[in-house]
Specification:
With about 90 residues, the chain is mainly α. It contains 3 helices and no strands.
Length: about 90
């Protein structure tokens, strides 16, 4: 159960939504006379950060963010003991 990851179709959907939003933002910027650089750069930076954080948290043993699994393991052990005693 601890080895489950976000399914690849969900990641592909996430990427396609972000690409679509980027395309729409670029299209709308091209229609206007003025191209707002700061909001565009800020939005793309936030999208990239969200994607990388989702992928990094999905794989806790790899990546920049290292998640310690000891507390989760300690919480599961009493449940397994209860299951062996009463079930």
């Amino acid at each position: 159960m601890l080895r489950l990851h976000v399914p690849e179709p969900v990641l592909f959907l996430l990427f396609s939504v972000f690409v679509t939003v980027g395309g729409m933002l670029g299209y709308n910027s091209g229609l206007g006379n003025k191209r707002p650089a700061f909001p565009t750069i800020l939005l793309f930076t936030l999208i990239i950060l969200v994607v990388f954080i989702i992928i990094d948290l999905d794989r806790p043993k790899r990546g920049i963010i290292q998640v310690n699994q000891d507390s989760l393991h300690d919480a599961v052990m009493p449940l397994q003991d209860y299951k062996t005693e009463y079930c």
